[in-house]
Design goal:
Helices cover 20% and strands 32% of the residues. It is an alpha+beta fold. It is flat.
Length: 60
């Protein structure tokens, strides 16, 4: 995970509240972590599940 290129979610608020980062460029998985705790745990989501996962978060 040290070589992962982390980016902050576009839904992260500017006051330091709910902050999620994802890492791009890893084959088969999308790692997700809390940007306030970068040395904490990482949730690994399978690449095939990523698009439906994000779509479910955006659903009304």
């Amino acid at each position: 995970m040290n070589a992962a290129r982390w980016r902050t979610s576009s839904y992260t608020n500017s006051d330091g509240g709910t902050c999620v980062e994802v890492a791009d460029g890893l084959s088969g998985v999308v790692p997700v972590r809390d940007s306030k705790r970068p040395d904490g745990g990482v949730v690994m989501i399978g690449a095939a599940a990523w698009v439906p996962f994000v779509a479910s978060l955006k659903a009304p």
